[in-house]
Amino acid sequence: QVQLVEAGGGLVQAGDSLRLSCAPSGGPFNRHIMAWFRQAPGKEREFVAAIRWISGNTYYANSVKGRFTISRDTAKNTVYLQLNSLKPEDTAVYYCAARTYYSTSAYYTRENEYNYWGQGTQVTVSS
């Protein structure tokens, strides 16, 4: 059973940076994709970024491309989301998610495509 624990959220000002972390347990994760989603008040949960654990290949939502960076440290068994140039509209609860994959050409960006979730960490960006 995969378990995910997020950390690193907080209250920052517009233009600031934050780094979120996600510590998965219950591996190995050789066939896993790790992802970040976010959910703002009154809105649906949306895809932010994902990374394949073994290859390190990444993909992003257009809304965060160039500002956010997903990475993983296999030695520390941790996934990171670096958030730069934060905007008030980035305010949300950020969730770490995971799933297995069987095709290296498949991209998963929908909430219902992931079956493991963390508890979420709040990011609040003030203007």
Write the layout of secondary structure elements.
Blueprint (H helix, E strand, L loop, with lengths): L2 E5 L2 E4 L4 E8 L6 E8 L6 E7 L5 E3 L7 E6 L4 E6 L8 E9 L15 E2 L3 E6 L1
Parallel strand pairs: 2-11
Antiparallel strand pairs: 1-3, 3-8, 4-5, 4-9, 5-6, 7-8, 9-10, 9-11
What does this structure look like?
- With 127 residues, the protein is mainly beta.
- It has no helices and 11 strands.
- Strands 2, 4, 5, 6, 9, 10 and 11 form a 7-stranded mixed beta sheet that branches. The protein has a 4-stranded antiparallel beta sheet with strand order 1-3-8-7, with no helix packed on it.
- The chain is globular, with a radius of gyration of 14 Å.
- The mean pLDDT is 95.
Distance between the termini: 40 Å
Helix and strand sequence: EEEEEEEEEEE
Helix content: under 10%
- State mean pLDDT (0 to 100 scale): 95
Low-confidence stretches: none
Radius of gyration: 14 Å
The general outline is: globular
Number of helices: 0
- Percent of residues in beta strands? over 45%
**How would you name the oligomeric state of the polypeptide chains in this document?**
single chain
Tally the beta strands. Answer: 11
Main beta-sheet annotation = 7 strands, mixed
Structural class: mainly beta
What's the short story on this structure?
The chain is an all-beta fold. The chain contains no helices and eleven strands. Helix content is 0%, strand content 50%.
Key traits:
127 residues; mainly beta; 0% helix; globular; 7-stranded mixed beta sheet
